[in-house]
């Protein structure tokens, strides 16, 4: 079924780009929003970068392409206070970005009425190491997009673009997860030990995560110190366990951590595993309904306790 | 005279994170009732199991624990109404995460021990101690802790040779 020659038609992205520009100009001209958070073309051909447009004349800078990998929800979190200070904000959101927005609303970090969400139909974005000049195909598409279930964002203010039939991609992340789960604990330990030992503790995974908005991270505290800050294997292991634990039940799987990681640590595997585990245990899936408590913030009296003596 | 005590090659270090209202009182009852259980358990008292952050468990393992016991009030008996319900979910998730990372879950025990269950405390502490004793020392985290600890590997053959070559 999988055909490596199959590509996604770039016309889909061109149509979305036009619609995003038109919508951005409309809301900026009418004064409905103070700014639009979107993507614009990067300096190198085939790249894109986040931008904040406040002038209707600049709306034509906005684009949507397979290079629009960033999760823009990050720009609305506490970490970027200056953006939200401007007033009502419009944000261009792919399906996976929308899940992050919904999660942030559920955690009272954002108010729906202060946002104008321009949902974009997205067939997928490029993987971290992909050649930017090639169209999206089995070779260049990001891991998360291979198994995407939210190509068309829902409950937005406006959704632009129409989805064409997509080629079937190999679900590499689920395959890798299954491979790890089939290992013995000792093999898994050496797998993660090898990966985490490479970590340089640049905290790119934390800075890029829409859910890591704590003003003081537990892992930066030193009296008492919870996690060693030196990039040694011991501290790295602790940091990645704590990171996965703090995102459990909140992470909506935008995989930005994995994309931003300079050492190519498969961080989204941890997120995926925790998301699946919490779905199995408590039937919770992050990022679909705002105003719900996360699975670790609520409880039921009849929760499973077979592991407790 | 004291009964003859068997010497073991390996004495496991067990850290017990307990809630002050139930398990700590239960362990206290075991003590005042003069029940015997292995002295390997180091009890750390918390106001509630809801206060026990998974980081504490991690840090216990990193700093040399061979086994960790987390114990608190039975569901419904929490002094703070729902602390142990929240803890139950958190630890279920944390267990899954540790398992995925490759930690042997036999070294991590959760239990509900009420203030009246001195006997159950003895049973839980003994069982975990004996199980960990059979498993041997927890090497994974300790080895990790020793890695890239430059002061620890200062006596390498290369360094020794360099030292010997100093004229």
How are the secondary structure elements laid out?
The complex is a heterodimer of chains A (309) and B (167).
Chain A: H1 11-29, E1 35-41, E2 48-53, E3 62-63, H2 81-84, E4 89-93, H3 95-106, E5 115-120, H4 143-146, E6 158-160, H5 172-181, H6 185-198, H7 204-207, H8 233-247, H9 256-260, H10 267-282
Chain B: E1 14-19, H1 23-32, E2 41-46, H2 54-62, E3 67-72, H3 83-101, E4 108-112, H4 118-135, H5 139-146, H6 157-164
Parallel strand pairs in B: 1-2, 1-3, 3-4
Written overview of the protein:
The complex is a heterodimer of chains A (309) and B (167). Chain A is an alpha/beta fold. Chain A contains 10 helices and 6 strands, in the order H-E-E-E-H-E-H-E-H-E-H-H-H-H-H-H. Chain A folds into 2 domains: 11-160, no CATH class; 172-282, no CATH class. The longest helix of chain A is centred in the first third of the chain and has 19 residues, at 11-29. The termini of chain A are far apart. With 167 residues, chain B is α/β, with parallel strands linked by helices. Chain B contains 6 helices and 4 strands. In chain B, helix 1 (23-32) packs across helix 4 (118-135). Classes of the chains: A alpha/beta (309), B alpha/beta (167).
Characterize the quaternary organization of these chains: heterodimer
Biggest sheet features of chain A: 6 strands, mixed
Helical percentage of chain A:
25-40%
Overall tally of structural domains of chain A: 2
**What are the secondary-structure elements of chain B, in order, as H or E?**
EHEHEHEHHH
Helix-strand sequence of chain A: HEEEHEHEHEHHHHHH
- Percent in strands of chain B: 5-15%
Mean pLDDT of chain A: 90
The number of helices of chain B is 6
What's the helix count of chain A? 10
- CATH topology of chain B: the name is Rossmann fold
Strand order, sheet with most strands of chain B: 2-1-3-4
Shape of chain A: globular
Largest interface: A-B, 46 and 40 residues
Shape-level CATH architecture of chain B: 3-Layer(aba) Sandwich
Low-confidence stretches of chain B: none
Which range does the strand content of chain A fall in? 5-15%
